[in-house]
Amino acid sequence: MNRLICYGLMMGLLLAAPALAETAVAPIDAAKEGIFTPAYLLQSFAGLIIVIGLILILAMLFRRFGDTAMGAPGNMKVLGGLSVGQRERLVLVQVGDKQILVGVAPGSVQHVMVFDEPLANTQGQDNPVSAPWQALFKQSRGKDES
Length: 146
Known about the structure:
This protein is an alpha+beta fold. It folds into two domains: 2-67, no CATH class; 74-120. The chain is 55% helix and 21% strand. Strands 1-2-3-4 form a four-stranded antiparallel sheet, with no helix packed on it. A hairpin with a 5-residue loop joins strand 1 (76-83) and strand 2 (89-95). The longest helix is centred in the first third of the chain and has 32 residues, at 2-33. The chain starts with a helix and ends with a helix.
């Protein structure tokens, strides 16, 4: 019985040998053509474009839904910030009904002030005082570029 199984396996291998030989010749033919064929380069470039596209789409989705997806509490949010030095910032944070002004520097975060009533201009409206400054900066940029 064991001999019969061994003979059957050997016959199967002998019959499969031509098919194995054909697949063994294919890499040799590819080496003769060269691996940088136009089809290979097009396929590699298309794969690269797809990966970069996925990265960009995921970055946009994370930017749009990042705070809620990461489990940030809904009653706490950053309303704005102002740079007061090279590495120092003042940040306005809303927690519930109160707004807290926090000073942020490398290695430290300090409480500056608590506002019991919300500030009026925290919803992204332009400050009327900043409009002339913005116009002045736009004019000076136009002069520098020309």
